[in-house]
């Protein structure tokens, strides 16, 4: 296979692109055909032998990949060949194949592309763990992010906003700050040109910030600490500037504040269940569009050292990604599955998409209405449904128990949740024009032949069974609705709907 190899410790220009032997998975490992590998700051440290993990030479850098499972070790039961996955490999990712321990691998939701998948966990995982588990950031609090346009920084800006905080982004140029603003930052500080401590004071009207997330260290740490509010939390995440700051302890006393370490890699090993829960929440936020990765540039495998050099030169905003393997095949497969997924049912591709008169509708009785687009039943949607209906059965809401006890380790959506999606999906299929009122009047013969798991995608097929006139000049539509889940042989919800329209 082709790989980028570190044969002696040094800067990115020492790395070589070469042919090397395919790795072989041990009994608890999985061989992944890499599709994408994101570029992270530790890749720069690891090739210089400055990182806490020290692989033996020669090795490939690249700690976070997405790809296809190619082979599994004899003890691996939860993953299979052909599955799309993302993995935290630590190193080895700038190569066509990598072996990873099974417990560091996560299946990719169907609608998540390889580039996004490979660039999500490390940055969002770290920022989320820092803000949620360490600082316990509250809505309404003020969050200052140093190095805000970098991988972890930009993720913290977005997550801070999603968690309801007021976010102040600090970075070294107007261009970098513009990206932070686009991601929702409320205030911006150019810490190369402005006085960090004074600007914090000005923006917070003297109160200071409640939480600082620091990935930079160096000369910015002390003014940031001086700009903290009473009982603030200072998150020590990284030292991209190189210098490990020495802070005066008296400031911590005077502010009654906490300086807390954030080590996501260790957290994921010490508290794997909590980490899993965070990952599920992040994937659900990505799927619902609440957060999204900013991709700076995509490099091919051979130019991976350039990507590392640009990161080192502070040129990367958001994430740099290395594309690996055969993307032409991948594109064909995606196109094939898209064309299959958007094909209307039956031979009714020419069905009029709107019905202007009762006559139009009557002519359509017995015919299919078509097929809706896919929609994802995320854990967030399941949680919201549980809250709305006050039904908190563990199979719906307890992600840790579901992981341990349910097949596939995922929560199951309430049957009535799928039924509740029917009217929304039906609008795609039955855009009635000139209608004063449409009312979902009732449902008949509801069945749920197969479960819907958290993260599954569903869509609706429908057929008009009958149209009846009512005494007040309106009419009742009887619609056969069948909801399918991507990859399930049986439908997940079948029902006969009665819709009253006037
Ligand atoms: N503790 C953990 O669990 C954990 C997890 C992930 C990452 N980290 C650490 O967090 C740090 C940031 O990681 P990242 O992936 O976000 O990196 P990144 O994308 O390169 O971002 C780092 C930011 O730091 C700023 N910076 C200031 N001085 C720099 C210098 N001399 N060289 C490079 N950047 C400099 C840059 O912004 P400006 O130009 O705007 O200043 C840059 O955007 C790294 O030290 C990494 O090891 C720690």
Automatic annotation (TrEMBL):
Residues 10-322 form the Enoyl reductase (ER) domain. GO terms for molecular function: oxidoreductase activity. Coiled coil: none annotated. This is Enoyl reductase (ER) domain-containing protein. InterPro entries: ADH-like_C, ADH-like_N, ER, GroES-like_sf, HotDog_dom_sf, MaoC-like_dom, NAD(P)-bd_dom_sf, NodN-like.
């Amino acid at each position: 296979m082709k790989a980028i190899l570190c044969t002696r410790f040094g800067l990115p220009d020492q790395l070589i692109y070469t042919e090397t032997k395919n790795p072989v998975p041990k009994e608890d490992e999985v061989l992944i055909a890499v599709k994408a590998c994101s570029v992270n700051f530790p890749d720069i440290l690891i090739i210089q032998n400055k990182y806490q993990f020290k692989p033996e030479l020669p090795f490939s850098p690249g700690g976070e990949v997405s790809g296809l499972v190619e082979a599994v070790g004899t003890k691996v039961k939860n993953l299979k060949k052909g599955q799309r996955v993302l993995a935290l490999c630590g190193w080895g990712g700038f190569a066509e194949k990598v072996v990873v321990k099974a417990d560091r691998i996560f299946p990719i939701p169907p609608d998540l592309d390889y580039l996004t998948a490979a660039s999500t966990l490390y940055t969002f995982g770290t920022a989320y763990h820092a803000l949620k588990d360490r600082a316990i950031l509250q809505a309404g609090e003020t969050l200052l992010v140093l190095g805000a346009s970098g991988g972890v920084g930009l993720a913290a800006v977005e997550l801070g906003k999603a968690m309801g905080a007021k976010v102040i982004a600090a970075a070294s140029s107007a261009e970098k700050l513009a990206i932070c603003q686009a991601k929702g930052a409320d205030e911006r500080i150019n810490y190369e040109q402005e006085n960090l401590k004074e600007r914090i004071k000005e923006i917070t009207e003297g109160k200071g910030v409640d939480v600082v997330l620091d990935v930079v260290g160096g000369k910015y740490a002390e003014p940031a600490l001086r700009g903290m509010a009473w009982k603030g939390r200072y998150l020590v995440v990284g030292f991209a500037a190189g210098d490990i700051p020495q802070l005066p302890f008296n400031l911590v006393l005077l502010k009654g504040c906490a300086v807390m370490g954030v080590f996501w890699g260790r957290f994921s090993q010490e508290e794997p269940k909590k980490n899993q829960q965070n990952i599920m929440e992040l994937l659900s936020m990505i799927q619902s569009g609440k957060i999204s990765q900013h991709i700076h540039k995509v490099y091919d495998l051979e130019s991976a050292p350039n990507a590392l050099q640009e990161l080192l030169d502070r040129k990367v905003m958001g994430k740099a990604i290395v594309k690996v393997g055969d993307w032409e095949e991948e594109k064909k497969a995606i196109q094939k599955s898209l064309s299959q997924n958007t094909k209307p049912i039956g031979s009714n591709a020419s069905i009029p998409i709107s019905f202007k008169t009762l006559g139009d509708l009557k002519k359509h009785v017995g015919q299919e209405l078509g097929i809706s687009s896919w929609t994802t039943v995320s854990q967030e949607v399941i949680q919201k449904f549980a809250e709305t209906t006050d039904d908190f059965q563990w199979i719906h809401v307890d992600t840790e128990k579901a992981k341990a006890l349910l097949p596939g380790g995922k929560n199951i959506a309430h049957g009535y949740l799928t039924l509740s999606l029917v009217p929304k999906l039906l609008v795609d299929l039955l855009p009635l024009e000139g209608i004063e009122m449409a009312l979902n009047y009732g449902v008949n013969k509801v069945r749920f032949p197969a479960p819907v798991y958290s993260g599954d995608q569903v869509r609706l097929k429908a057929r008009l069974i009958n149209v009846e006139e009512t005494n007040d000049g309106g009419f009742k539509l009887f619609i056969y609705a069948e909801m399918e889940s991507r990859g399930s042989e049986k439908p997940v919800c079948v029902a006969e709907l009665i819709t009253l329209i006037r």
